[in-house]
Amino acid sequence: MREVCSSSALIADAADRFYSRVFVKVEAIEKQIESLAPEELAAFRRWFHDFDADAWDRQLEADARTGKLDALADEALQAYKSGKCTEI
């Protein structure tokens, strides 16, 4: 008789394979970073800082455009109006 796999088992298997590939890729990147000369590592740090900051900015802008931050903004405004905080 043929074994029937549940959709959750298929999804879990696909996720395991995906994360295994990602982990191997990350390990390879880590090894490359560890092999950098000090000046190369400094350049990488600068590049990654800028890269990460740009990604953060894009995500924040997207969240603001789609309204994901509206509740937080409303909460902050209410706290300000009720005197729980002050202008900086």
The total strand number stands at 0
Order of helices and strands: HHH
The biggest sheet, with number of strands, parallel, antiparallel or mixed sense and barrel status, is:
none
Q: Return the structural class.
A: mainly alpha
Q: How does the overall form come out from the CA principal axes? A: flat
What's the domain count? Answer: 2
Query: Percent range for helical residues?
Result: over 70%
In percent, how much strand structure appears in the residues? under 5%
- Name the average pLDDT: 90
Looking at how many chains there are and whether they match, the oligomeric state comes to single chain
The total count of helices amounts to: 3
Radius of gyration: 23 Å
How far from one another are the termini?
71 Å
Low-confidence stretches: none
Which helices and strands appear, and what pairs or packs with what?
Elements: H1 7-34, H2 38-65, H3 70-81
Walk me through what this model shows.
By secondary structure, the chain is mainly alpha-helical. It folds into 2 domains: 1-35; 37-88. It contains 3 helices and no strands. It has helices spanning 7-34, 38-65, 70-81. The longest helix has 28 residues, at 7-34. The protein is flat, with a radius of gyration of 23 Å. It starts with 6 loop residues before the first helix and ends in a 7-residue tail after the last helix. The model has no long low-confidence stretch (mean pLDDT 90).
